[in-house]
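Weekly puzzle thread! Below is a chain. First person to post its structure in token form gets bragging rights.
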Amino acid sequence: MSAATVTGTPAPPPTLMTPGALAGTRTLVGFNLRRDRVRLPVWILALFLGTLATADKYATLYADPEARASALATMGSPAALAMTGPGHYLEDYTFGAMTGHQMLGFSAVLIGLMNVLTVTRHTRDEEETNRAELVRSTVVGRHAHLAAALCVAVVADLALAVLLAAGLGAMDLAPAGATGSLLYGLALACAGLVFASVAAVTAQISAHTRGASGSALAVIGLAYVLRAAGDAGGDDVLSWLSPIGWVQRSYPYVDDDWWPLLLCLVSAALCAGVGFALSTRRDVGAGLRATRPGSATASGALLGPLGFALRLHRSVLAGFGAGLFLMGAMYGSILGQADDMLGSIEQMEEALSKTGGATTAESFASMIIVVLAVVASVHVVTATLRPRAEENAGRAEALLATGLSRVRWAGSHLAVALAGGTVVLLLAGLGIGVAGAASTGDSGLVLSLTGATLAYAPALWVTAGVAVVLYGWLPRAVQAAWAVPVYAFVTGYLGQLLRFPDRMNDLSPFGHVPPLPAAALDWTPLVVLTLVAAALILFGLEGFRRRDLRTR
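Winning reply:
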């Protein structure tokens, strides 16, 4: 018995300076890297190759001074600056400046997503599944899990920074491009560190992985909105409140300012310190935010599998619905400026001409609707794979031990995914339709754009069908379902701008949907996609009915 216990004096909470507080960190770092040996390389290579391909296309598409002048003329509008970055890049619009202006903010969001998912996976998810308690029963310090997760995030961010610095440095993007390339890579790494440290804080507040990830992702969204509002309105104060605004104001390939990255490093250190401090004020497995007590009795809806599944999915569904409505409204607000923004850009004219359409606004809207549909498919994949998480956590076993059948249990989650994805599409269509009608003065866009967005519902159902097949027959490979929305975005949106072969788009279910409202409605591909989705769903559910359940 310790002296503190004998005298009744409480032991001080462990800090980073407490001997043994970081014990086992090195081992956990190696273990986490082993677990992420596929996940992180895929993230890093996707960001690296996507950036290089885009920068190379800039050099090809804007090779003529006239093309660069046209791009420069269209990027100065408030709507364009909100979508890209600060107007200072336009003063010397080299290929490198184009890359920094149009790619840095977008890439900062993606690397933030990578870091948030990495940190919450190795901290809050470990506690929620009770693995952290088992590991901490050995010689592992109180702060080892969080320190190891942050170390893994640092390794991933620095690896991406090195690749970007080497890859972009080998391209002739600007005079003294090697310095700009190094700054570009480190700017993204610093943005990743900020959002990793934010996730370190949210992982202490929420008792659930979804809550911790959702809160951190909300911070990323707020940072993007602040940056966009500041750049569009010319108010640097708002942009300087955003970590994304900080990295963009390092101005790689233009001014090569390194000092804004210090803001990122200081913020990351402060947030990480707060995360470590908060971790000493809670129990393992618990969050600082107390769980709200539920009702003493369950409602009638919760007595059935469908109502219970809807209760589990409702917060994520509401978040995606609100986010896509706002995203659609943001894009719809610039439809009235589509002719001025896009009419003189050669590659945009070619991409828009493929979709047809009586007006540039309609053709541009058809391209944006693809993006909205792909984002909606992210919710569909997340909801469809929720039974896998329930099975891994051991909760499915208790439910299926009753009279509830496997098909009915998995089908309830699938029904929420299919119906929820359609509702999310509807909200996205309303957002772009209402804002588009206001910006163009054409009230008919409300119905036409809403209907055009809903036309992608069969493609969402096919995406869900692929996820169900993987879950039913190859449960260890369920993460491969994410390849469908990723490939759809690359080919459906970037492919049109970067002139990918048309046959690549045919491999995506989204590539078979008529590009409404620019094109005429064709029911045949929509019916075929619906039948394919139904076949995939039935096949996947049969696989789940036949295979062994993972038990704990």
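Puzzle host: Confirmed. Bonus trivia for everyone else. The chain has 26 helices and no strands.
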